Amino acid sequence: MLTRRHFVITASALFSAPVARGQTEGEESALPPADTDASEAVVETPVEAPRPKSNPANWPRWDAQVTPAGYDPATSNPWGIPSRFLPRRVDANPGLVPGDIHVDAIARYLYHVQADGTAMRYGVAIAKGNLYEPGTYRVGRKAKWPVWTPTAAMIKRDPHLYKQHENGMNGGPRNPLGSRAFYLYEGNRDTYLRIHGSPYPKSIGGRASSGCVRMVMAHIIDLYPNVSTGVTAHLHPPEDYVTAAS
Fold it and tell me: CB neighbours of 71 closer than 8 A, spacing ≥ 6?
């Protein structure tokens, strides 16, 4: 299997034009004062932060909140993104596996291959700088309105953005993973890379994330029921990767 840094096949020729629309360390072992009976000493138990949650009862309301009234995937665009990033059905080259996902990091498109030789195409944003990791992954899990916890690397890199969320963030329209998420795995290992909805739709078409692939929340709501766990997600190299390898 190709690894993330050895994936050198680009996606530029895979698809054609559209065809239709508390407690500090060591405190627990501290001794009581010399004049205190050890049997009377009080040992404080650290209080765990509450785990982030996402209440399924809220999901229909949140879906409606992020989906435009009278939504038509091919034409609705209250976000003001370039029209080429709206969902389109396009022809796919022969030989591609139905159900698989391909992310063209150069054109900023995600393709979901169909059994009839077409693909649904969506606009995406990819990661900033060298945080984008091309490779071949497995969709090991998917979730509606997921919770989110920044990784230790994210907190170290940008503490002013992520330290406040180190204990996690509840699901909802302001959550960075948005309305839906596909969790990318290598074998049985979670890579912490995601394809997910984003509360920042104007980032679509650019480089914006800390490693993930972003989509408009209404778009990934449409895509979500059509993607099965276990399918392959191909994250093709971005332009600077291709240039460096040429």
Answer: 218
Question: What is the CATH number that goes with domain 58-245?
Answer: 2.40.440.10
Exposure class string for 120-154: b at 16+ Cβ within 10 A, else e: bbbbbbbbeeebbbbbbbbbbebbebbbbbbeeeb
Count of C-beta atoms within a 10 Å radius of residue 164: 11
pLDDT value, residue 18: 56
> In Å, what is the CA distance from 130 to each residue of 71, 133, 186, 193, 211?
35, 7, 19, 14, 9
- What separation in angstroms does the CA of 12 have from each of 87, 90, 91, 244? 18, 14, 13, 17
Taken in order 162, 167, 168, 174, the sign of the CA dihedral is: negative
In the predicted model, what is the mean pLDDT of the chain? 82
Delimit the domains of the chain by residue range.
Answer: 58-245
Tell which residue, 28, 21, 59, 29, has the closest CA to residue 45.
28
Condensed to tens digits (0 to 9), the pLDDT of residues 168-202 reads 789 999 999 999 999 999 999 999 999 999 999 99
